[in-house]
Each structure stands twice: as structure tokens, then as C-alpha cells.
Amino acid sequence: MLILAIILLGFWSLTGEIPYLVLCLSYVAGSSTSMLVREAIIPSTHFNIAPLLAVLLLYISLFMFIELMLTVA
Asked: For residue 44, what are the contacts with CB-CB under 8 A and spacing of at least 6?
């Protein structure tokens, strides 16, 4: 899902159309949530950077959603 989000981000940077950005951010939020749920169900025994990356991506996508809603409205 993250690879698809990167591809959609590339389409958005070429075209500048908002639906590509919204779909990209929703994919990032969904994959981040999926990583956090997977880590909560089956915790790893060693340090894993995936939960930290998931939280970071989730915050970025949520702030981008808020900024996008404020600029469109």
C-alpha cells in the first residue's frame, strides 16, 4: 500500500489534482494503522522501527488532511 501511495504522490506532483493527494494520504493512513494493529496483536521481541515509522506517517497524513480541508474550504 505504501508503494501505491508513492505512485499516487508522483501522479499528484505531475498533475496537481487533489484526488490523487487525498487517495495517497488515505493509503498512507490505512497502511500505518495496519502496521500498528499488526504490532499490537503480535509484538516483536526486539526493537523494530516499523511502529515509529507508522506513527510518524499517520501524523503526517492526518496533518495533511487537516491542511487540505482548511485550504479547500
From this structure: none
